[in-house]
Design brief:
Chain A is of the alpha+beta class. Chain A contains 6 helices and 9 strands, in the order αββββαβαββαβαβα. In chain A, the strands form 2 sheets. Chain A has a 5-stranded mixed sheet with strand order 1-2-3-5-4. In chain A, strands 7-6-8-9 form a 4-stranded antiparallel sheet, sandwiched between helices. The longest helix of chain B has about 30 residues. The interface between A and B is large, with 37 and 36 residues.
């Protein structure tokens, strides 16, 4: 697949306006819509609930065991996974697989912000991986920022997840991540660009497991269990002041949007599974 | 603690301490079913908390906070700086958080703790975004001089809920902070008027800010960390609890009941909306307690 190439079969991409052209299109037919929110203008003509065009290509690096390039609009992350390797690192654990995350910024040295991202990414990866399969090993995930145009951490989490799948690391489920931002109390916007992020009152990065209906077939998806997995929140990071109700609204909105994201991820991963070829 | 006296388990033939070491999770789960914790707390009760403002005499503001045995020492040193061009009438706050090897066996000498920069970043995000301090108040002369508050927090004993204790000590240190008086010297530079020489020699010099003054502290941010395990929620975990049950949620609310941060870095347990709401309501209760503790400690300090 070409660099940054997108799956033409993805309805999300067909539906979304090209971000660079700034065209205004009618609201997406299938996107989750909420009344009374359509009047907010975004610089790129998206509706508040509209994500930027997604693209993901896997296996972009030859030496890595698994790699992926993930982009959301102009934000692009390149992630590589090496491992499982014989555990020699300080975090080695004889009973569990351990992970390390190395964050490479676009330029310069890593600071506190990046170290925080490393920690969040590492803990998120640990929570989606089956840790008992390869005990006493270390898996390294290297995240290279190619371009930052807002929602950097969610983009990195999505990229890392795709890279882990590409490397064949056993996972419990996928993680899909989204940035929800609060324009003003009660008004939530999804997947902001850098420019929008700066203007926001507050924003939150949320990570959910991929929606269960795409993993389980209809028969096994019991209504109760299904609800349980839908509800779960893996990671939450917030910036800025918001009311508790606004946060809960972000949570709900983010959860709805991750359905779209996990559909995209699933569609993207599917053709390369041996069972489907 | 007679919870382990049940039969049909290893625990009946084993000393409690050995069982605790060998099967830490089973040890805890056994307690949790009885709705009690090994330190005899109910699940949602926090440890005893105390705050001692003014612990460091040489600092402009300082406080020692203890939550259980977790101990944090925060001190603030004020320095005059030139404000940035973007915000000429604002001062700034720089947060440093140290975890020396003295605080915990997991911190080894020569290798900085992994957690330290993360907590430092969280603290500065929380303090700056909560609006507790109006940075404009730290301005001395617009565009020319402003205060830089260097907040240093030392972890003396790390036994869980590090962020909560660090934030509490930081808030107490800012409440204790006295901004020093400054005056212009002959070269046109601002100097801090030291208390001893506050008498005759500075009289002819123009005092720039009149007096030592306190900052106005509005809507204090305070936090509570909860550990999630299965369906249990444990408020204010100890270090042992944090290492055994790895999912934690840190909720920061300010005193006007707004959410400053809801921080859950991964973890094996997924948080449902209901447990998030539960954490928020526990935090609300905790903030009331902490506010009382803070006001009591400052009241008793003023008495002395």
């Amino acid at each position: 697949m070409a660099w940054g190439g997108s799956d033409p079969g993805c309805p999300l991409l067909r539906r979304l306006p090209d971000q660079t052209s700034g065209r205004r299109t009618t609201p997406a037919a299938g996107a989750p819509q909420f009344e009374g929110l359509m009047e907010i203008d975004r610089a790129d003509g998206r509706t508040p609930n509209q994500l930027r065009p997604l693209s993901c290509s896997r296996g972009v690096l030859h030496r890595a065991h698994g790699s992926a390039s993930w982009s959301q609009g102009n934000t692009q992350i390149l992630a590589a996974a090496y491992g499982p390797k014989a555990g020699t690192k300080k975090n080695e654990n004889p009973e569990r697989a351990s992970f390390e995350v190395i964050w490479k910024p676009k330029s310069g040295q890593i600071g506190k912000q990046e170290e925080e991202y490393e920690m969040i990414l590492k803990r998120t990866i640990q929570s989606i991986c089956v840790l008992t399969v390869n005990p006493n090993t270390t898996t390294s995930v290297i995240v290279q920022v190619v371009h930052d145009d807002g929602a950097l951490l969610p983009c990195a989490i999505n990229a890392a997840c795709a890279a882990l799948v590409d490397a064949g690391i056993p996972l419990k489920h996928l993680a899909v991540s989204i940035c929800c931002s609060l324009v003003e109390p009660g008004i939530v916007m999804l997947d902001p660009t850098k420019l929008e992020e700066e203007k926001m009152k507050a924003f939150t990065y949320l990570v959910f497991p991929n929606s269960s209906h795409s993993v389980l077939n209809k028969g096994s998806a019991q209504s109760e269990n299904n609800d349980e997995t839908e509800q779960g929140l893996i990671t939450s990071v917030t910036h800025g002041i918001m009311s508790v109700d606004d946060y809960l609204q972000c949570l709900e909105r983010g959860r709805a949007a991750t359905t779209k994201l996990s559909d995209f991820l699933r569609r993207n991963l599917q053709p390369q599974l041996p069972s489907n070829t | 603690m007679g919870a382990q006296k049940n039969t049909g388990d290893w625990s009946s033939d084993m000393e409690i301490d050995a069982f605790r070491r060998l099967f830490p999770l089973r040890f805890y789960e056994r307690h949790l079913t009885e709705a009690i914790r090994p330190d005899a707390r109910p699940l949602k009760k926090c440890r005893d908390t105390s705050v001692a403002p003014g612990a460091v005499a040489t600092a402009d503001g300082s406080a020692l906070a203890k939550i259980g045995s977790t101990t944090m020492l925060a001190s603030i040193k004020m320095e005059v700086m030139t404000p940035s061009v973007d915000s000429p009438d604002e001062g700034n706050i720089a947060v440093e958080y140290y975890m020396p090897p003295i605080c915990s066996p997991i911190v080894r000498p020569g290798r900085p703790a992994e957690l330290a920069p993360v907590i430092a970043k969280q603290l500065s995000n929380t303090l700056l975004s909560s609006g507790m301090i109006d940075l404009k108040e730290l301005s001395i002369i617009s565009g020319k001089a402003a205060w830089m508050a260097y907040l240093d927090i030392y972890c003396l004993d790390a036994d869980g809920a590090l962020f909560d204790a660090a934030l509490l000590s930081a808030v107490a240190a800012f409440s204790h902070l006295n901004i020093p008086a400054v005056s212009l010297n002959d070269e046109g530079k601002l100097t801090i008027v030291s208390e001893e020489s506050n008498g005759e020699e500075n009289v002819e010099k123009e005092p720039v800010n009149r007096d030592r003054r306190k900052l106005t502290i509005s809507s204090i941010p305070l936090s509570l960390t909860c550990v999630l395990h299965k369906n249990y929620i444990l408020a204010d975990p100890t270090g042992e609890e944090e290492s055994i049950m790895e999912t934690s949620i840190t909720t920061v609310l300010n005193t006007s009941d707004q959410l400053i941060s809801l921080y859950k870095p991964g973890g094996p347990v997924l948080a449902s909306t209901a447990s998030i709401k539960e954490c928020v309501s526990l935090t609300r209760q905790r903030i009331k307690e902490l506010q009382d503790i803070l006001s009591d400690s400052f009241a008793s300090m003023d008495m002395n």
